[in-house]
Structures are given as structure tokens and as C-alpha cells.
Amino acid sequence: MKDDAATKKFTGSFTQQEPIPEEAIHAATEVLRHGRLHRYNLNPGEDGETAQLEREFSDYLGAQYVLAVTSGGYALATALRALGVHPGDKILTNAFTLAPVPGAIAAVGAQPVFVETTEALTIDLNDLAAKAAETGATVLMLSHMRGHQPDMDRLMQIAGDAGLKVVEDCAHTMGGMASGERSGRHGTVACYSTQTYKHMNSGEGGFLATDDADIAAKATLLSGSYMLYDRHGAGPDAQAFEPYRDTTPNVSGRMDNLRAAILRPQLASLPDRVARWAVLHDAMEAALRDVPAIRLIERDPALVRVGSSFQFLLPRKSGDWMTNFVARCASRGVELKWFGAARAKGFTSSYKNWAYAGAHNMPGTDRVLAGLLDMRLPLTFSVDECKLIADIIVSEAKA
User: Fold this and answer.
1) Cβ contacts of residue 29 below 8 Å, gap of 6+?
2) Among the listed residues 118, 65, 67, the one whose alpha carbon sits nearest the alpha carbon of residue 94
3) pTM, to two decimals
4) Could you read off the pLDDT tens digit of each residue along the chain, which spans 399 residues?
């Protein structure tokens, strides 16, 4: 007997990641056996796991300098400090992002100035140009939220004309590309995350990447290098540190050798995972494309997006209807996040929930978030499971 679309349920987990690769488990076990977890705790002549990871990530990105740190959020705040951001400075950033982005700005005492969001879920470039002129800001913290990247050539032209340094938040785009470049290679600094739900999994962790030797030196000192910066795998030469070594505070945030050991094999297999995410994302997109009630997020076909999450719009629905829709899907095993809710829930929040960032009027972003739904696509899903999830969403959207 054929399943009724109104009664089907999904029994998988939206939070279950793939197991850590056996090679990574072996490498982690070796670190545990010798006990030298701290990145500077090395035997004579030993090249630690963290230094090797930095070198390998530098080669992967094509960036001159890479610093491995404790989290993507730490990388963001460190980038701002290394750029010389001071308390009270205005920092431009996306209105549609996650809390660690404005959190990093607040952590250095600066003031977020939010920029509107388009229906493509990217930063509104016209509003960016206007806000840059209005505020006199010198830094844009650009969040590639949920893997959506704007026209980076045009954005960098706007940034150049306005004198903006661009810090790219690539937490959701590690492994992706834009304008023929790896994500993060357009701005002055790029920051990446290896938190459990990102594209490499060390529980927590991150990277800061740049081609600027001064920024790399300051970031390394900020991370708590204790003048042991010669033990970094992808850092600048010793002379780059001289102007800053006695004036830069220690704001400790080093990655340890255990997490680096877990990540190195995952970096080697990142392109394969990106390709597998594309298959899942394409399956969801195909299953929902011709549903009248649902509007998909259109994306540039030249963009290499990492499809580890999926977003769609249900426009012109009331708040009560959206709340009930999310609840109905949840009762059938489909976990959706709605960005238009009045209060933050779990990992989902919006600029209205960040009271520390001040009050902002963002009517364009409000219209987008009112209908925006989001879900994870872990690699533990199959194509058939994606089709089942889509069937449930369609059934409830029509209810």
C-alpha cells in the first residue's frame, strides 16, 4: 500500500554528523599517547600537528598566512583587533547572519551597523555603498551566511571605493568558490570555523587567513604565542613580529594538537564532501522547485556553494501560520528553523534579538526573514531521505 503524503514521517537525525575518519582517529590517538596536546609542547625537531595543519590549509587556500585558533568567532574578533578596530568604531555587517558575527564586533567594543539582505540571502550591495558613505566605517565584516555569496567582484569594487577593509566570515563557505576563487580569498582577512556543524568537524575550532604579514603577526601574538611564533607552520618571518611583540596583548585562543590531528585528514577529503553535499542540495532543490507555495533561493550557477544547509521562502504567511508550520513539520520528524520568530531559539536568531548591538530599522531584511526557513543537510542523509523530507514540507505547506 502506497504511503499517504499526509502521514509520512522522517525518522533520521538533522544533527547526526558522519563519524570522524579512521585516519583522524588514529592520529588523535597518537597525540593522546604522547600527551603533547599544547601546540608548543614539542620534542626537538618535531613539527606539531597544528603547525602542519596551518601549512596544509595555507596550501589549500592559496593564502600566505594561516593561524589555527579555538573557534571561528575567536578568529573574527582577532581579525578586528589585528586591523586596529577600537571601541566605538562602526563596523558594517550583514543583517542576516548568526550571533557570533555581531558578537565578535561587540567583543572588541565596536558598534555593528547592519546592511540590508536581498532575497538571494546576500548582502544588499546598494545598501552597503550607502551605509559606507553615511557612516565612514573602515571595516566590513562580510558574512557568507548559509553559504550564499554576493557578486564578489562588485562588492570589492564598492569596498575599494569606500576604503573598506573586508573581513570574510567563511564559516559556511569553507570549500566553496566565488568569482573563480576559493571563498575567503577576496578580502583582507578570512575566518573559518571547524565547529561540529561546519564542513570540517573538530567540535570547536577555526582559522584566520590573510596575505598581510602585519595582520598575521598581530593575530598570532593575540592568540597567545608567547614569542614562540617560529613554531607556526604558515606564519610570517620573525621580523614581521618585531614592531608588535611588546605592545600586543595575549588574548589566548590557540588550537591544540588534538584538534589539529582530527582535522588534517578531513581537509584532504573536503572536496569529496563538497561534491556529496551538492548532490543532496540538488535533490532538495529539484523536489521543491515547482511547488507554487514555495520560493527557492536562486543562486549564481558559477558559484560553488557548499550545500550543507538548505533554505527556502514561504512568503506572505502570518507569524502564527509559520509557527504552526514549523511545529507540524517537527511532528513528522523534519526540523526547520524560522528566522522570522520574535525570540531567538537554539542556534537561530536575528538582528532584532541582539540588544547589545542597538536598535536598527531593516525593513528589507524583515520582509525576507518573515518567510525564511532553514534546515541542515548532514552527509548522513541519503538522496531518498531528502526526497521524503521534501514530500513532508510540500504536504504541510499545502495544509
Assistant:
1) none
2) 118
3) 0.96
4) 345 667 899 999 999 999 999 999 999 999 999 999 999 999 999 999 999 999 999 999 999 999 999 999 999 999 999 999 999 999 999 999 999 999 999 999 999 999 999 999 999 999 999 999 999 999 999 999 999 999 999 999 999 999 999 999 999 999 999 989 999 999 999 999 999 999 999 999 999 999 999 999 999 999 999 999 999 999 999 999 999 999 999 999 999 999 999 999 999 999 999 999 999 999 999 999 999 999 999 888 888 999 999 999 999 999 999 999 999 999 999 999 999 998 998 889 999 999 999 999 999 999 999 999 999 999 999 999 999 999 999 999 987
Domain ranges of the chain: 22-268, 270-398
Measured between alpha carbons, how far is 20 from 287 in angstroms, rounded to an integer?
30
Return the CATH superfamily for domain 270-398: Aspartate Aminotransferase, domain 1 (3.90.1150.10)
Domain 22-268 class, CATH top level: alpha beta
